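does this look right to u?? flavin-adenine dinucleotide version
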Amino acid sequence: MTDFDYIIVGGGSAGCVLAGRLSEDPGTRVCLLEAGPRDTSPFIKAPLGLGATVPSKHLNWAFKTVPQAGLNGRCGYQPRGKVLGGSSAINAMIYIRGHPWDYDHWAKLGNPGWSFADVLPYFKMSQNQERGADDCHGTGGPLNVADLRSPNPLAQAFVDAGLEMQLPRNDDFNGPEQEGVGSYQVTQINGERCSAARAYLAPALQRDNLKIWTGVQATKIILNGKRAMGVAYHRDGQAHEVHATREVVLSAGALQTPQLLLLSGVGPVATLRKHGITVSHELPGVGQNLQDHIDIVIPYLSPSSLAMGLTPGGIAKLTKGIFEWRRSRSGIITSNSTETGGFVKSHPDLAVPDLQLHFNTAIVDDHARKRHFARGYCAHVCVLRPKSRGSISLNSVDPMDAPLIDPNFLAEQADLDSLVAGFKLTRRILEAPALAPYRGRELLTANVRSDKEIIADIRDRADTIYHPVGTAKMGNDDMAVVDSELRVHGMVGLRVADASIMPTLIGGNTNAPTIMIAEKAAEMIAVV
Ligand SMILES: Cc1cc2nc3c(=O)[nH]c(=O)nc-3n(C[C@H](O)[C@H](O)[C@H](O)COP(=O)(O)OP(=O)(O)OC[C@H]3O[C@@H](n4cnc5c(N)ncnc54)[C@H](O)[C@@H]3O)c2cc1C
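got this back:
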């Protein structure tokens, strides 16, 4: 059995940060285990490559949920990166931190050190903001944050349409105000995706004290009583073990970190007994508290050649774009497809925005799994702080099996009400004059007008916008899994550092917050 000081399970957004930061000390031996392959695919480097990875099984676990009562019994889709970089290798690259309110709320829930003032330095140290440093932004960090190189005027028309609807303009959603419509900044560098692997691992690859093992799936945490001793894993169908002298850190993401805890006998007793797993440590909150952004998309057909699509003209443009990208790292291939959007309030009296908009320069229907041979665009709207709570459990004790994922979408009436309000607001923007030159007909929703029809459409089509969190939540109540230093309650040598630890879902996209969590975790681990 091989020995390391730290074993990190999962080479995603958080795992890459931890491996990169902890191995900065040459005296520390770090091993990163990742189930997927190295991140050499051109579909990662080329930003628009997400159009190939998100709807497919390429570099993607492509999980599905259990049937959702709130979604007419449909099974939802849960893409997750299965490659070095994890979901940051297939995501839409939007750089958003959430609202300061979210972190102040975490602190109020009993998590000292996690208020916005506390976490802002970690956001800043992770970042290289190409616009330069200021009170809100940092430079010199590994994660490059850029404006899109070749913004599509169609996406800008969505911003203009929002302004016509009296929404404020916002040129920096991570600045002093979150509310408004504008362009998203992206985690890109020189027209290429800047995944967490690109940002944090690429500079560390030559370090002798860092081992990165890909194609390695952790199957269990090796425990001696309450102490984590190492990790059991499968490589090419063979079982192996690796030993940690200091700590095991779980960074397998909000869907698989709780799965691994359960497989190791750490979790709710009833679940463990049901699967015949010996209870190593009772922790009722493992896998509970799943929160995700429920989203509905309104696609339009478009006569404009600025709209992307599977038409002869669209394919020719894409082909030309590939040559341009290869030549100069500019053009359509640098698009993240979801170029603009905003944060809005469903009621003017709300203290913080409760809805997020994502405008996409192509048709998205069923996560782009349903193809339309036509040009178009769409706008998404999602509920930023849903009240519904779901769970992660086990389908079986086979670690190669997918976890049982139940987001319990729209279990709470308030979430449905917010999404209906969001649907109407989004449609008003899409009907504004600024989009008139681009507008064809509504592809799926032309006959959806009354509240009853909108609710039926939501139940028929709504699904995640890919931000599951909270399944190993931080806190000090009975359902908390980790403390505010991310140590698993009641255990020794075991931490969780990834999107699972968020006690509540933040109001925005979750990559930058996960990277912040890992930056903070690395510092806490290193000073022990
Ligand atoms: C399609 C999509 C679009 C998104 N768009 C955006 C966006 O534009 N902006 C944004 O901020 N956020 C976005 N997100 C969300 C964001 O990317 C995630 O919240 C973030 O990457 C989560 O980081 P993580 O470290 O918790 O998990 P992940 O990055 O998912 O990492 C988990 C890693 O663990 C590995 N793993 C799992 N189980 C095991 C095991 N047993 N053994 C070994 N390895 C294992 C996985 O293969 C994976 O590499 C998007 C996500 C998706 C899927």
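The domain at 149-183+294-383+411-461 is CATH 3.30.410.40 (Cholesterol Oxidase; domain 2). idk if thats expected tbh
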